[in-house]
């Protein structure tokens, strides 16, 4: 295959000679810089995608997709509300709940947390807590027996295990002649769960729905109804439809409302990290400008001879654009390969680094999870690749244009 002479000369200029080895070294540094910037961008975005995906999954293992509640905290005839909700084709399950705050006490240890009254059979269809039970089963919650299921961190803080007694104090008190007396009840631990999300593991306790109604004096009413959808991403749409069907008597929220601040913060962080790391790629790409300017200066005589032999200015420009583009493409492809490889093996690399350093990089109490998840998305990799290639191409324009303007007589005057 006969290549155009512009391609052959551009590729030849990439090979170092003894007298211009420094220029080739600078070009190599530019390629490495582009590769490192692209790899860092892919790894960081993959980690943020994985973090968001993992946290969303853990949130939805405990939190429902959609909740229907009353404005005064008492929802009567929840069965009728559930039937209305289940008319929506995307609703696959519904379960009542009673929410409340409580103070747990056992063996001199006191901790605050969220108390949730549930119907075990229905609750297991809405969320996945039953699949995360370390000890016991949700079905062991029976009305009138005052059993309780605790998060693993909450159980550890209270220093209790299966069969131990936990006293639950509620904010609602009982008025007596002696004043306000806190309402409390003793429960037996019949289960411990772990969803690997510190917020829930350290603060959530579940009791039977009827026990919660008795404790909160709700009678036959509940706090609301929790719904599970066939696609969690349709929660805002289903919420709007249910709000219209139920009218203003009930309040409908979805999981994106409950965790809006968190997911908004993650999106903002992802955008900012993308901008910052793209600037790093841009700096590395524009290092090609200095490299090509030095090459153009070094090749003044060669350019003059080519012009004298009849090469058009556009051909001279193509030579140096090809040289810079090959360097940019090489750095980009190396960065993509390295970034994807590292992102796909973070589950092996991070534990190795932790063992070498002898420390834990992530604490579940701060970051919700204690490892770095990764989710490599083709869209992100494609976008990063295109941006890096465009930046590298832009970096070749000025030096190539400057080379095309070289005047043969001026270049050969002192040769």
Automatic annotation (TrEMBL):
Keywords: Cell membrane, Lipoprotein, Membrane, Transmembrane, Transmembrane helix, Transport. Its main location: membrane. Pfam families: FtsX (PF02687), MacB_PCD (PF12704). GO terms for cellular component: plasma membrane protein complex. Residues 27-244 form the MacB-like periplasmic core domain. GO terms for biological process: lipoprotein localization to outer membrane; lipoprotein transport. It comes from the Bacteria. It is a multi-pass membrane protein. InterPro entries: ABC3_permease_C, Lipoprotein-release_system, LolCE_TM, MacB_PCD. Residues 275-408 form the ABC3 transporter permease C-terminal domain. It is found in: Cell membrane. The chain crosses the membrane at residues 22-48, 274-297, 333-353, 381-398. Belongs to the ABC-4 integral membrane protein family. LolC/E subfamily. This is Lipoprotein-releasing ABC transporter permease subunit. It comes from Aquitalea palustris.
């Amino acid at each position: 295959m006969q290549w155009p002479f512009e391609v052959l000369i551009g590729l030849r200029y990439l090979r170092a000679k003894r007298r211009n080895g420094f220029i080739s070294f600078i070009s190599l540094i530019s390629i490495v810089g582009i590769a490192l910037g692209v790899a860092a961008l892919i790894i960081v975005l993959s980690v943020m995608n994985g973090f968001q995906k993992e946290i969303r999954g853990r949130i939805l293992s405990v939190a429902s997709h959609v909740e229907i509640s009353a404005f005064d905290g008492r929802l009567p005839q929840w069965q009728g509300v559930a039937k209305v909700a289940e008319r929506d084709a995307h609703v696959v399950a519904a379960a009542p709940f009673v929410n409340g705050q409580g103070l747990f006490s056992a063996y001199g240890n006191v901790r605050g947390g969220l108390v949730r009254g549930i119907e075990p059979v229905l609750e297991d269809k809405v969320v996945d807590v039953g699949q995360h039970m370390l000890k016991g089963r949700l079905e062991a919650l029976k009305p009138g027996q005052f059993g309780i299921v605790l998060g693993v961190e909450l159980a550890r803080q209270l220093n209790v295990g299966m069969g131990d007694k936990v006293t639950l104090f509620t904010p609602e008190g009982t008025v007596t002649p002696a004043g306000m007396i806190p309402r409390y009840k003793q429960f037996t631990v019949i289960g411990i769960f772990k969803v690997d999300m510190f917020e829930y593991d350290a603060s959530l306790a579940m009791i039977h729905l009827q026990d919660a109604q008795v404790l909160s004096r709700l009678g036959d009413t509940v706090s609301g109804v929790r719904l599970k959808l066939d696609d969690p991403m349709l929660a805002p749409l289903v919420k709007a439809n249910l709000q219209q069907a139920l009218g203003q008597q009930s309040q409908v929220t979805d999981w994106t409302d409950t965790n809006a601040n968190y997911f908004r913060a993650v999106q903002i962080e992802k955008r900012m990290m993308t901008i910052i790391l793209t600037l790093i790629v841009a700096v590395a790409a524009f290092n090609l400008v200095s490299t090509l300017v030095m090459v153009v200066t070094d090749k003044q005589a060669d350019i003059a001879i080519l012009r004298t032999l009849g090469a058009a200015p556009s051909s001279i420009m193509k030579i140096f654009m090809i040289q810079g583009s090959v360097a940019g493409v090489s750095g980009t492809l190396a960065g993509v390969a390295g970034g994807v490889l590292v992102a796909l093996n973070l589950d092996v690399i991070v534990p190795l680094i932790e063992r070498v350093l002898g420390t834990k990089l992530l604490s579940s109490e701060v970051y919700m999870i204690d490892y770095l998840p990764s989710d490599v998305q083709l869209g992100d990799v494609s976008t990063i690749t295109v941006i890096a290639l465009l930046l590298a191409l832009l970096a070749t324009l000025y030096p190539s244009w400057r080379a095309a303007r070289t005047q043969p007589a001026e270049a050969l005057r002192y040769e």
